[in-house]
Design brief:
Elements lengths: L1 E5 L4 E5 L10 H22 L1 H12 L3 H28 L2 H20 L4 H29 L2 H8 L1 H16 L5 H18 L7 H6 L3 H12 L6 H16 L4 H8 L2 H19 L2 H15 L5 H22 L5 H28 L10 H15 L4 H9 L5 H30 L1 H22 L8 H8 L21
Length: about 500
């Protein structure tokens, strides 16, 4: 407050000063890095089969069917983990749920390391898949409930960045390690969080839901810094939780709202984006990169090419963060779709010339790597982050929780199907037709974006909800044009 004294009357009154802009504390940074470390394990685990597939085929005498099961059991386990995750975070807590998944990763990599045959690999991938599914729900919730809004966008990018670091690490180690040594690296990566776990705190939102008001205040104080007044935020947290408990609906009522006509249309947009994201073939590419490069006969060593793709995938995270709020969602989706259609078309043409004709493609040995770079970059600019971002933007607050669970489960189902059939399809009809099929699906995604996907750039969540519900929104000032916080994917 600023005190003003009028000399003629000696009347004292005060005017409010603008509050200082909140700053990110070391506690929040440590918290975000700690949980993002587990996201790095997700990336490492997802990419594992790419460098490991060749040595696994050799040591376990695997055919394509068994290899596709080793690869696709992870997303299948993630589907189950996504369902289990909701129960765990509400009963066990966000923090302890993340620890549980980290320990499951540790167990999975140990089983992997001591594998005697492909059945061990099946078990390992199912366990790690369950962990991935649980974390896909838990990490966003934990960060949203611990990090203050002013830095949530910046710190919210960390899990994505760390996830891509995990993919890159797996590709790098895969240049000189085989499947067993790669599993040992996974064991080592799982240990640090077990130590840091005892430093970070449970989310204030979960603590208040358990009636632990003193612990809630302690957690808030630790997160916001010792010199920060947390009373206002604490009372808002209390009020918010009280309002939620007063408006709880039965399961039947929730389903009725979820599948109302307008919400069903919005769910269709979200599920469409999720389907096109996975049917672009991205996870098949990430899981089988080394094998694809080996089959391509590229002039570059397959492990080096795979590593280059991992580097591009990592860098593209930050490119997407720069442009996602400048160009708009739809423009980036257009760029993403066109890039992927072109690169998949060229990749398919290369394999067609190589496998279905007598033409020597040795002089085109650079094409597989160039196509993969354009493909991964295009995906990361649009269809990688935007379906997840728009899921949070266009789904109304009243159904956001259950609708997000449905969308996440649907996404993992698509991931399982794509990764399971990719090699089988390539064996049956050839890599060229397989890539052309993915390209045709991505072309359909371009049409879907043009005709059905709304633009949400520069709009508040409340304005988006009103607009999609058919309520006219009038902008009162330039404040409405403030950019939303960046979101990770």
């Amino acid at each position: 407050m600023r005190v003003l004294v009028r000399a003629d009357t000696h009347v004292t009154f005060s005017l409010p000063e603008s509050e200082p802009k909140p700053k990110c504390t070391w506690s929040q940074l440590i918290t975000a890095i700690a949980v993002s470390w587990v996201s790095m394990i997700i990336g490492y685990c997802s990419a594992y089969t790419s460098p490991a597939s060749i040595s696994l085929e050799r040591d376990f005498n695997l055919d394509s069917a068994k290899l596709t099961w080793i690869t696709s059991l992870m997303p299948l386990g993630a589907l189950g983990g996504g369902i289990l995750g909701g129960l765990l975070i509400e009963n066990l807590g966000r923090k302890w749920t993340i620890l549980l998944t980290d320990l499951l990763f540790l167990v999975a990599f140990i089983v992997n390391y001591f594998a005697q045959n492909y059945v061990y690999m099946y078990v390992s991938r199912i366990i790690s898949g369950v962990s991935v599914g649980v974390l896909s729900l838990t990490l966003p919730v934990y960060l949203a409930e611990t990090v203050q809004p002013e830095v949530r966008g910046t710190l919210g990018l960390l899990p994505t960045a760390f996830g891509n670091i995990g993919i890159l690490l797996c590709y790098l180690f895969g240049t000189f390690y085989e499947w067993q040594q790669l599993a040992l690296v996974g064991v080592v990566l799982s240990i640090p969080f077990v130590i840091v776990f005892w430093v970070i705190r449970e989310t204030p939102r979960f603590l208040i839901s358990r009636g632990k008001e003193e612990e809630t205040q302690q957690a808030l104080q630790w997160l916001r810094g010792p010199n920060t007044n947390i009373e206002k935020e604490f009372h808002e947290l209390q009020k918010s939780y009280q309002e939620e408990t007063e408006t709880d609906e039965t399961a039947c009522e929730s389903l009725k709202v979820l599948f109302s006509l307008n919400n069903f249309k919005l769910m269709g947009i979200v599920l469409g984006l999720m389907a096109f994201q996975q049917w672009s073939g991205i996870n098949a590419v990430i899981f089988y990169t080394t094998k694809i490069f080996k089959e391509s006969g590229s002039t570059l060593d397959e492990t080096i090419s795979t590593t280059i793709v991992g580097v591009v995938n990592f860098i593209s995270t930050f490119i997407a963060a720069i442009f996602i709020d400048k160009l708009g969602r739809k423009v980036l989706l257009y760029i993403s779709a066109v890039s992927m259609v072109l690169s998949l078309g060229v990749l398919g043409a290369y394999f067609f010339l190589k496998d279905a004709t007598d033409i020597d493609v040795g002089f085109l040995g650079f094409l597989p790597l160039a196509s993969f770079i354009v493909y991964v970059l295009g995906f990361s600019l649009g269809f990688g982050p935007i379906p997840w971002l728009m899921m949070g933007e266009i789904l109304p607050a009243k159904i956001r929780g259950p609708a997000a669970s449905v969308a996440t489960g649907f996404n993992w189902t698509c991931t399982f199907i794509v990764t399971k059939i990719f090699l089988l399809l390539a064996d049956e009809i050839g890599f060229h037709f397989t890539f052309w099929i993915f390209g045709a699906i991505v072309f359909l995604s371009l049409l879907f974006t043009i005709f059905f996907v709304p633009e949400t750039r520069g709009q508040s969540l409340a304005d988006i909800e009103r607009k999609l519900a058919g309520i006219k929104v009038r902008r009162m000032s330039s404040v409405a044009n403030l950019k939303p916080m960046p979101s990770s994917f």
